[in-house]
Amino acid sequence: MGELGGLLWALAIGVPLLILAVWLDVKRRRRVEGEPARGPGEGNPGYLTQSEIDGLPAPGVRRPVLRTEPRGERLEIGLADPGFADVNGRVDLKDANVLVIDGTGVTMRELMIPIARHQPLVLVARGMDEDVLATLVANRKSLTMSLAAVITDLIPEVADLTGALPVSVADLRAGYLPAGHLGHATRWVTDGARTWIEPHPPLVGTT
């Protein structure tokens, strides 16, 4: 029953992700090829424009401005896209899972299952296609997912702080993601330019 439940949950999350990925792919192709003519009475095309994604409200509840830096190790890593930020201008995830992607070229097909199963989730990579980022942001906003992505060359530092083992795009494509390859953070905070990682288990002396 546990495996069946996990599959149903993955499908429930994966279908919206796939739909948005298709919409954004259509958007990308029409941006390149041009908008096709529509007959009289035809409505707007069924895809999200970038302005519609940008117009989606940021998730979260507004909180007081931080007077001090969050606990944990600070790295000069900002959000891969400002659209991941909540209403406070940052991502603040507790008990976060961390997926470090080795290489570039990852697509939404490889990310659907990890996102469905391992939220709250931070995706860490050296590069990510802009259409993938747009799809992730759209899902973050429209489905209020506990999700963020960062692009950085500080892969070894992130892996060391979180215990993550980098996973190749080929492995993700094959569905290979052992739970032991995921990193973990008691708290992960990222704004436009910096990231604070509180390792898991908590730092000695913190409460």
UniProtKB/TrEMBL annotation:
Region of interest: Disordered: 33-53
Transmembrane portions of the chain: 6-24
Keywords, alphabetical: Membrane, Transmembrane, Transmembrane helix
InterPro entries, per the entry: GroEL-like_apical_dom_sf
Protein name in UniProt: Uncharacterized protein
Organism name: Arachnia propionica
